[in-house]
Amino acid sequence: MQTVHARNVNEAYAVGMNMIKEQGVPEPSRYGDVLVMPDPVTTTYVKPTERVLFNDKRDANPFFHFLEGLWMISGRNDVEWITKYNSSFKKFSDDGVTFHGAYGWRWRKHFNVDQLTEIIQILIKNPADRRAYISMWDPDVDLNKEGLDFPCNTGIAFRVNNSALQMTVFNRSNDAVWGAYGANAVHMSMMQEYMAAIIGVDVGKYHQVANNFHAYTEVLDKVGIPDPHPMDPYDMGDVKPYPMVQDRATWHIDLMNFMDSPTQKGFYNNEFFYDVAQPIAEAATFFKQGEIVKALNSCQYISAPDWNRACTEWIKRRIHRKEERDAKQATKRKRNSVAHDTDH
Predict the structure, then answer these.
(1) Res 18 pLDDT > 90
(2) Who's near 232: CB < 8 A, 6+ residues apart?
(3) What percent of the chain shows pLDDT beyond 90?
(4) What is the rounded CA–CA span in Å between residue 183 and residue 63?
(5) Which 8-state DSSP code applies to residue 225?
(6) Which of 239, 278, 283 is CA-nearest to residue 262?
């Protein structure tokens, strides 16, 4: 068993990716060649609410990761809502309508029990209870079946230790780039923070145990291996997390209202939805519509310093790339024009 012990996702990404580079073993897979760790890997986040990855080459989509986290906590599995923020995500749906392995659906509806609510009640009643466990893998519909979308994260164990909610996620197959240090670090920690707040305890450590920890070589060629000691905006004090829950009694109601109208400026008891979620959804919508200036303006209203910075930088990287493409095309057209004039 290998262990990555990190303050947050930025340190974990740097340490984990360098570990794969140094110790990963080449293997083929259904989707291309990978480097896979010979033994299971556990990543421990000491500060899981520092969940935003600031790595330019990795270029994680903050809009999608954030909104996917809320989509999961709401218990949904529909393609329509979440693909407004990442249209390519639709390719993982078997029927174009729902996602078979959607984590939020498995948490709250698939097994005909709301596992999140049950665990909240269990741990409020008895913080020492050792049966607070979420199942995401269903052998009846997953084992030895064919399809595009089966849960990679298969179970989650919770415990309250020193008045803090610790969480251990078990994963059968973990893509280090897109999964572990991409989407998983965001949506799992968002769920953990929500659970801790409703229970009435602090957020503790988040452990992710990956049985098969790997990275695709094609992806590694694209994103590169990060500096093993990156400049971390959290550690430097440049950004900090914004608490998700202000009013435990009404948070879920606010979430449902937000899911119904993500960009509508409505009334929320929890400032998180008005100050963070709504402007993120608005900026993402403007960007999809090609309204770049409006998207950047909406980003300035994101009260969470970490998400504000990540969303703004993500859009600016795309502006820069477009400018580079336009400059190259202009140079090419000029060269072709000169060649044409020379021929005549």
Answers:
(1) yes
(2) 7, 8, 10, 11, 54
(3) 91
(4) 11
(5) P
(6) 278
Q: Return the bridge partners of 156, or none.
A: 134, 169
Predicted pLDDT of residue 332: 81
Report CA-CA distances (Å) from 181 to 12, 57, 211, 260, 320: 7, 13, 15, 29, 25
Measured in whole angstroms, how far is the alpha carbon of residue 65 from the centre of its chain? Answer: 4
pLDDT digits (tens, 9 = 90+) for 204-262: 999 999 999 999 999 999 999 999 999 999 999 999 999 999 999 999 999 999 999 99
What distance in Å separates the CA atoms of residue 198 and residue 122, rounded to the nearest whole number? 12
| Two structure tokens written together for 113 | 């029990």
- Under the banding of pLDDT at 50, 70 and 90, the label for residue 327 is confident
d(CA 138, CA 134): 11
Locus of tokens 């799992």: 188
The residues annotated as belonging to the active site are 152
As a whole number of angstroms, the distance between CA 64 and CA 57 comes to: 17
Identity at 108, one-letter amino acid code = R
Structure tokens at 255: 């979430």
User: Token pair for residue 121?
Assistant: 């009640």
φ/ψ of 110, rounded to 5, equals: -55, -40
Phi-psi region of 163 (alpha: psi -120 to 50; beta: other; left: phi over 0): left
Residues 269 and 252: their CA atoms lie apart, in Å, by 10
Give dist(CA 173, CA 171) in Å, integer: 6
At residue 33, does pLDDT exceed 90? yes
Amino acid found at 216? Y
Place of tokens 């596992």: 115
Q: Is the CB of residue 50 less than 8 Å from the CB of residue 234?
A: yes
Report the SS3 class of residue 295.
helix
Contact yes or no for 260/287 (Cβ under 8 A): no
The two structure tokens encoding residue 181: 């240090």
* Residue % of the chain over a pLDDT of 70: 98
C-alpha–C-alpha distance, residues 326 and 202, integer Å: 49
C-alpha 38/C-alpha 214 separation (Å) is 9
| Burial zone of 239 (CB within 10 Å; 0-12 exposed, 13-18 middle, 19+ buried) | buried
